[in-house]
Fold this protein.
Amino acid sequence: MYKREADGLLKIENWWIARKFKGCAYYASSIVWGDEDNERLRINYEFDLRQDSGYRPELRLSYVVVEDGEKREIRYTVYLYESALHFGGTRYWFACPLYKGQTPCARRIGVLYFNGRYFGCRHCFDLTYQSKSANYSAPSSIQLHSIDWYVRAQRLEETMKRKTWRGKKTRKKRQLLKLYQKMSTVKW
């Protein structure tokens, strides 16, 4: 069965929350995909991270989609999970807002994908990544990888300060030897 690839879809990622709203308990704005002349999607959102008595952090989304020539405004809430970081602070995760039958998915995810109408996890939309479906054993793919390996080997050689430490090969030297071994197996 063919799966759609997630790589080209519109998405909202959880790292964006941490970077954009650090220290803010409430924030409202909009996201626009595309440019001024060709706007693909405009989403108005509100991040509400206030934690009053029993209140759960959430992301409220509202946007307009065109279905059968009619504009339809969609509004819903994506709840957020929190996890404590071992070095202090908090990371927020999305709870997938979609339903499978009568059961909410609510999977803890880092990326919300847009399928044309709603945002949800890649499992609900049955998505895959391009890298999972790539044929790395094809000759052209191996040759492309060998070019990447060559560039990485050059970088390692440039940044390597020592080849050994206390009689043992350093991590960079071991990585370099591994790359050389991979490169030697490529048939041009």
